[in-house]
Write a structure and sequence with these properties.
There is one protein chain. The chain is mainly alpha-helical and 148 residues long. The chain is 48% helix and 11% strand. α3 packs across α5. The two termini are 23 Å apart. This is Replication initiation protein. It comes from Brevibacillus formosus.
């Protein structure tokens, strides 16, 4: 494949490498993936920055992506699509201070991106997180095909 403008020919090979990596990740056995709709970064992130601040928006979305990556992906499990890391696991893996995790999850809940439930778990109570792919208010945004 040739670039339309010869000045950009050097970008073609790295682009093919990225396309091959994308194909491998999206293929069966590619190591798993989570689609993040464009609206998360194009619409929701700027809203969060305006409503809260940049660091809060960044950290809230980091937790959101973390929960997406840790959601249980097997339909045969009672907790299909739910994530259940501990606050300590989230803190350790993301570097976000433990005292900030609950308020950041609350932001994601109020924005309609995460649902939480507490369930009985081996004699204790366990918090489950259901990271959604977009808030309900974006149903029509995604349905009309403008998320491209």
């Amino acid at each position: 494949m040739q670039a339309r403008d010869s000045r950009y020919q050097r970008l073609m090979e790295p682009g093919r490498t990225a396309a091959a990596q994308k194909h491998r990740v999206l293929s069966d056995g590619g190591g798993g993936f989570t689609p993040i709709p464009h609206a998360i970064y194009r619409e929701i992130m700027p809203e969060l920055v305006a409503k809260y601040d940049g660091a809060t928006a960044r950290d809230a979305l980091t937790i959101y992506m973390y929960l997406q990556a840790h959601a249980h992906g097997k339909e045969t499990n009672d907790f299909y699509m739910w994530a259940y890391p501990t606050v300590e696991q989230i803190r350790r893996d993301t570097g976000i201070h433990g005292d900030r995790i609950r308020p950041l999850v609350s932001i994601m809940e109020s924005e309609g991106l995460v649902m939480t439930e507490k369930v009985a778990w081996m004699g204790n109570v366990k918090k489950l997180y259901l990271p959604l792919f977009y808030p309900k208010r974006y149903d029509s945004y995604l349905r009309d095909g403008t998320d491209s």
